[in-house]
Here is the input.
Amino acid sequence: MEQITPPTSSKCVWIMSDTHFIEPEDLEIFYSALDDIQELEVNLTGIWLLGDIVGGHDMKTLDKTAEIFVEHCESLGVPICYVMGNHEMDIRRSKGINRFPIHEAALKRPNWHAACNLTDFYFSKEFLGHRVYFFGDHVAEDAGWFTSHGEVVSEGNAKYPHLPEGYVRLKEEMAHETLPIITAAHYAFPGGQRASGLLDHLLPLPKQVRVHLYGHGHIGDPIWNPIDTWEREHTVKGQDLMQYNISSFETYRTPGSFSALLFGGPDEDLDLWIRCHVEKRWVAHYVIPKAETKAV
Ligand SMILES: [Fe+2]
Here is the structure.
């Protein structure tokens, strides 16, 4: 792979998942990755953070870690999209407290994008000439429920509000989208690794969707991702549609620190490059062919 390099003049987005930062000291690998990305001199137009970015059970440490991370992300000067994963729920799960410092920062700061409400299961934004739908873990404002590992964790009598109507409505919205679609989430669709039961409600995905990118199933982790441990590429269940596992950035469960760059446009191939920031080299490259032109 080392002789082959991405087309640095094309627009691209940087995609990270499962950084698992708990203490400020954990950010060392992120500083190194930031340098690595900047040295590549790619034409970066966005950062996508696909969940499990921060976690842990101590609020002060969580706030400090998140604050430093947010400021460093902004140093790249591009729009940043953020969804939560199961580890953002650590304090909610253990202490019943809603404290999501990156989400809180994202709602206040100009270059950040996230779900407007903690209860929302998706949001969308345009990148690379595509409508990108982001899915993450979401949570009731008060006690009641939160989602984790692709399921609803119920804390009482409050009902999860999105099934089936919310998912049906979103499927219809996606089917009427005029731009091609990319989906990005903390979890895989069924067919991928450690898939989400909730995302299953969106299947089959409409024809506009070109690819799904996700985290959570850390590549190279034989404990939590034991099936096809090193396989990043799968189809979405029942569809001729590819999904790619781009995780993980953390280095304690997996050998290496992986993130992805996605290049391309609406009428071009999409090029997905996986980089290891420890070895500072490309470790995988996938091509999502351009959509077939319809016969007139
Ligand atoms: Fe996760």
